[in-house]
């Protein structure tokens, strides 16, 4: 397998080619089937009251909540298409929205349908069960006084938010659906820092390895992190645009006072983007050091070869001369011939070494 | 042949230089002659009725369809220029539009002529006959209640759409020409994912080969895929602008409700662009790994050479010394001389090996 | 000589430093003197009549043509400054315009002076006499019902246009000066594809050579083409802006119906830019392949050295051992000593070869 | 440790993951605890009077200063959250502002809350105690006639400003809070040049080292400086936007006459950005020289090896020939054989040397 | 010394850190003291009259010139701060303007103070005394009917302009201060081509050297030119913005008819920018050729080594075999043994040479 990034890309492409030619709004769940059965949870609250329960498909409230009340319907699991269809009918969602919810390969985007806002973005969270970071797609529908959230499977980053909903304290119960919408968005964005943390650890691990070994495995590791970063960047950049669009939006669904909070989320997204950019710079610096280290080792290898060879090749030549079998070679008969030749050899070696010293080769 | 990209480029340039100086609107078919004879098919439908037939040039309906009716004229094959001229007369198209239809080297663009919209874009589809991906240019004319489509040859991605037209169910029969226009556009864009799939497979194949061989053939293969990507990118980027222009368009030819569907097509085009960008990143990562692998192999070769040479060169020198023919060389007459020298040689070799070990060369 | 690009740059710089400090509007011909004497040609036509003749400086018509008539004055050769001055007086052109016409180093630009439009751009054409591509600067003045064109020397890309002017058929005679302006512009732009064709041929020639030799001459050739591309790009990019400016222009000099034709020219310029960009991508791909081929050859050279050296160095060492002159070397006296040693050597060589095979070195 | 940049990044990410899920406006000090106890200083001045003192939390003036008076409250140390809360109450600051003040990982930004402006930016100063450059975050609140500044610890760049406040001369006492705001901003920005100076020194030191050694330690040093630059750039770029925003601001808090001074600060920020960009160019040039020097040394090593080896290998071969023990080798018995062979060897060596000379190898 | 660019950068940084904390408008001359004493020259002219003289500080005209008259005050030398102060008083300039005039490290900018325009930009000119190109900063103040110009030292590019002022002919005397302003700007910009000429010569010199030697000195030379280009680019880019700003300006200080001339200056600045960009492309191409030449030489060195070594190593081995002292070696006693071995060696050598030929190594 090449990388997550391209696996994901392949998934997107596959699902698209499967659907090619079908009429728009055809509801087919494009993505892995992650759960056995879908679950529907609702929170219905006003400043005073709170109702929280898990319901079946038939129990989805058909009436919109009254003034001062907020309804949050959360669906875990997307493969039971009839649930999505039912909700589409009750809240009169556009067929294309339903289609987008079911295609778990969306790039983050926000769409304003007048009656409601549609936001889709990826969510990352740490699953203690599987001891790994899980990515799934969340779709949020913000209506006048309701929110519907669609997740691919159980488990999310909203537990702290639910706790705050259950207590009467805090702004959450006193403000409208738009503030809950902000709360959900903020929780998802805050969890992105998790991945940055993991990437940061990977970079440090690579940096440590760099001093020890320089095989092509390390290079592949560097590229793996690079690809993760590309993937993360592709997720966060459109999110930035989407939230900026929300801020500019003249929609009446988001109140003036909540917009200030959205600006805060926007700041966090910018921080994530900058962290990703910084990581990219770090990784490309590590890449340079890797390549330079490889070439430095090569240099050292060559130097050793050159030093050994250039010292001994002339010596061997001298020895070769006196190994010749000429009948008439006067030196051979001198009694000091042998020690003299050894001396000459020693001097040649010494000269070579001094030459290398002067060249600062060692 | 260098590459498809540059073949195409050459084609464009050639055809332009042929036409240089001719008055604008001169109808000459610029491109390969792909079919023996052109074919004209018409679909004429309202919610209730559907008429579908293949016609001759003389049978092209001269009257525009009535209220509530939609006419789709499809022409396969562009070299019978009289057909294009005839249609230009009947539907009063601008000469430059006819010229653009005949030049099968257009970059994707949309043009608003008030009475009608003109969209030209490439279409890719898998031909089961030839077992290969075929690229041709499609020109679409969207009028008030008619659509004219021009293709270079038979075979297209509209078969599913035709099936949906023939059945009474679905929105297609109930909506106007703009919705059919969307349908055609959507079918073409969806088919782009086909090429991405092929490119993805090529990238994976290269990635697998990378572990085995690193000859310059592989590099050329990498560049071939890179060029395909450049080519695809050049096709899709202007398409993005063209569809964005459609969305902004104040034309009355596209209804409000169809615009939402165009936004969906726009999203798909963005997804394709992102997939292309991701592929480019992957390919450039593969390029880095390729170059690094090549240099790592070189390193290994050099190391082997250095190890062998630096171990044996000093040993050979020692052997050379005792091969000298000096009359007075006391060591030669020692009875332990020979084993001693062998021992010394062994120690030198061992020392060298330990030195390389410490340097972590193997 | 380094390159055309920098020759041209030097020319621009030189001419500027010559003129430094002179008052603006000083008419000095900056550029090579390309012709011995200037020539003036006029076309005066209405739908019915056509007058075409070569005139002298004194014969330049002082009266603007009447309603329904179009006057095209073409000047070949810029060094007879008095002609330019005279025309400037008659048509009341701004001194800076005259100065720009005489400086044959302008980047393409369009300027609106209310009474007239001023467009300057380079023209490329194939001279059959000299069998080479010639570049010169063309300045066009578009007035209400006249056009003045200034060229550096005789020979241009307007012969087809002149032929069309002489025949009564076609739009050219029926439309105004703005349509002739479009015609001139279109002819010039269409001729750009000529150079692209030449560049394309150069690229292919380089690509073919790449498989055979990799000397630094080829690299210089690659850079020459690269520089031509830079040069072409520098010419075409500002032209794009200039024509876009024309399209946006609220000038009354260009009629609504001619604007559509300008849009067509704009499309061609975009196509040229894209072809240049594609060529750049191709060239940079060729560069990569060149560098990689060079390094692959190096690799192969090193491998051969390493294989030969590592096989024979140990063998030579073995031979060296039995060349030593020790009195006590039992192996020397064995009758099977010599064949045994040869066998050992053969085994060592075989081992080495198997080792290289396993390493996939050959 | 990899680098400051990524340490900082890690800090940001850590602090965010700690806070994930908490309601917005929860006041937790995110950052190192830098001081034991917080200090509050106030300056209250009009053109005539000046009151300066250190106060306790209970003594914070609850009444806003009168007309013509300016109040500057400076807080050193952020961990005593109750102080921040108290000030938030008195000056009715938005909870998100208080949260941002406490998070010492903000990117520079300006926010307009109508009643007050909020500016956050990093401050760098040279601490004579610790002989090092210290970075801390400063938050400035500009109200109608008050300024509140929050610093992480004692020590800042405002001492010159305080001195000017204490003297009656100068504009500072005569102008309003907005001019003091400008003064603070200007002092902070001017101090950025300090870091540029240090970076400049580092670059020069590296440049000097480059001539002497080329180990990978130097490369790491180059990358360290590169990372510092990335870090600095990330700090200054958003500051540029922030100040540009201030200039455009229609706020009534900043008077027309002070805006001109802000333009001056803006110019300084641009100068810093350009200096950073120039440093980046220098560093990347140094990088190129480094890599080229490494490869040149390699070249030289290879040349020495090649010269020695190619001179002696043929000589050794000649010696080897006459070391063969064939019974019938006529040369061996010639009385001039030995000197002749020596002569031949000398000629071979000379030929080689001349060959290398012609190749300009030394 | 690393480079001019960074020297200049250091100067800017140094001067800033010196001034840190001082109140704005503090007049300190930041820059080298270039002249011993400042000189003041005035030109006072109308269409009819011209008054030109050198004056002392006390003689600066306190009254603005009358209708139809233009006053040009030129100051050479900035260290006599009292002159600047005096002029500031008389013409009521903003303190920040005076400060900017004295800081000779400004990036080019234009500022509109309503009453007057302030333009600062670098000036380059060839000093015949010192036979070198000198760079200094020029500040221009354009008032209703006066111009004040501040230079760092004597010597400028205005001598031609002064000559034109002294003669009655030409537009200069007939037009207002804005036209003189244009004249000054034009002279300065035209002189920029001087440096481009020098850079062009440097590039050509490097290109010639490239064929001869490839030491790291050449690389440093390449980088020196690169840095000069970076420096020049940094000077000219902001100038482009500044002049574009002037063109858009609704100021009444520049008349409609002069704006056309400013457009001409703008065109020249664009030409300079393009020439700089072209030079950058040329330099980076030269860099590529340099690196490739270095690696090609390395290749050639390696090839020679490999050819020599691979030919002689096997031969030496053969010689080594027959140098062994085995008692039983039948070949040694053959009478054709020696010639046969020589023949075998010759064949081996020939085989190797043919092998290299086939590999196209030489």
What distinguishing features does this structure have?
homopentamer, 362 residues, alpha+beta, Beta Polymerase, domain 2, Methane Monooxygenase Hydroxylase, Chain G, domain 1, 2 domains, seven-stranded mixed beta sheet, 9 helices, 7 strands, 56% helix, rod-shaped
What would your notes on this structure say?
The structure is a homopentamer of 362-residue chains. In chain A, 56% of the residues lie in helices and 14% in strands. In chain A, a hairpin with a 4-residue loop joins β5 and β6. Chain A has a 7-stranded mixed sheet, sandwiched between helices. The N terminus of chain A is likely disordered. In chain A, α5 runs antiparallel to α6 and α6 packs antiparallel against α7. The first copy, chain A, folds into 2 domains: 269 residues, CorA soluble domain-like (Beta Polymerase, domain 2), CATH 3.30.460.20; 57 residues, Magnesium transport protein CorA, transmembrane region (Methane Monooxygenase Hydroxylase, Chain G, domain 1, Up-down Bundle), CATH 1.20.58. The longest helix of chain A has 66 residues. Chain A has 362 residues and is α+β, with helices and mostly antiparallel strands. Chain A is built from 9 helices and 7 strands, in the order αβββααββββαααααα. Chains in contact: A-B, A-D, B-C, C-E, D-E.
